[in-house]
Amino acid sequence: FMADLARHIEDYAARLPLVASCRIHKLAGISPSALQAAVENLSLKANGVGVIAIHHPRTRNILREIVEAGIRLVTLVSDVPGAPRSAYVGIDNRVAGRTAALLMGRFLGGRQGHLAMVVGSRSYRGHEEREMGFRSVLGEEFPNLTVTSAVEINDEPEVSYTATMKALHNEPELLGIYCIGAGRSGVAKALREVRPQKKPVFICHDLTRETRGYLVDDLLDVVIDQNARLIAEQSVIRLLGSIASSAPYLTRKFIEPRLIFKENVPVQ
User: Fold this and answer.
1) What is the pLDDT of residues 1-19, one digit of tens each?
2) With pLDDT > 70 as the criterion, what percentage of the chain qualifies?
3) Homologous superfamily of 2-91+227-256 in CATH?
């Protein structure tokens, strides 16, 4: 997803005459120190910055310093509300988590049993909000379903694979798996190897080349997609708008997520 998002941002920015240059900085990790290192490499001519960052006091301070230096800021995918950003571009992650729970409950049709959850990193506000939304709807509408395994994998596929293998081994009748972050390849690998007699319902986020394949192969039941292309375009538009405007904040508007099933996988 991140690679697709970066590519879409570069492609869209290159087509706009108002954008003199666009550079993608790949962070060495998710820590505030990695963000600080990237910020120190920003061009002195930069007018606007888009950031995907964890929700942490040091992160908020780094972002505050960027804005105080006269650079407009937009947060992408996972918001950092305490930072003086001009806009957040992304989906409502709590609603996305609630949607995942509703789909899980409907797919399972009143069956009673256990679910596993693979969490990317709760340091990302977006991942934390998805988990909160998922658990809320389970408690409200599907008390017959219980999350018995919730492993934070820090977006490492191998950790996701190990956690899923353990869950499938401990609970052969596991009903469903909800993957909140980037651990979906590890979940898919485990499902392929174990081949449970009754495959758990598998729900994840982001339509990518790999998740398209999982849908077609019947490993994955539904993708809640953030629409990388639309987020990329809106982030560039929002940055340009904030640079041109005297207003420090723009109107908040979420990207609408898409539900992608095997039968409606888009061409792009």
Assistant:
1) 889 999 999 999 999 988 8
2) 97
3) Response regulator (3.40.50.2300)
Mean per-residue pLDDT, 153-163: 90
What tens digit of pLDDT does each residue of 171-186 get? 999 999 999 988 999 9
CB 114 within 8 A of CB 47: no
Whether residue 95 is predicted with pLDDT greater than 90 in this model: the reply is: yes
Q: Based on the number of CB atoms within 10 Å of its own CB, is 177 exposed (0-12), middle (13-18) or buried (19 or more)?
A: buried
Q: How far apart are CA 19 and CA 169, in angstroms?
A: 53
Q: To which residue do tokens 């990388």 refer?
A: 228
Which structure tokens are listed for 167? 């869950």
In the sheet that 176-179 helps form, which strands lie side by side, from edge to edge? 145-152, 113-119, 176-179, 201-205, 222-225, 258-260
154: number of Cβ within 10 Å: 16
Phi, psi angle pair for 89, to nearest 5°: -115, 110
Domain ranges of the chain: 2-91+227-256, 93-225
Instruction: Write the DSSP symbol of residue 201.
Output: E
Identify the CATH class of 93-225.
alpha beta
113 sits in the region (left: phi over 0; alpha: psi -120 to 50; else beta) called left
Q: Which residues contact 126 (CB under 8 A, 6 or more apart)?
A: 77, 78, 79, 90, 93
Residue count of the chain:
268
With H, G, I as helix, E, B as strand and everything else as coil, classify residue 252.
Answer: coil
Q: 2-91+227-256 and 93-225 share one CATH topology?
A: yes
| Strand ranges in the chain using DSSP code E only, listed in sequence order | 48-51, 72-76, 87-89, 113-119, 145-152, 176-179, 201-205, 222-225, 258-260
Q: Which pLDDT value is given to residue 21?
A: 86
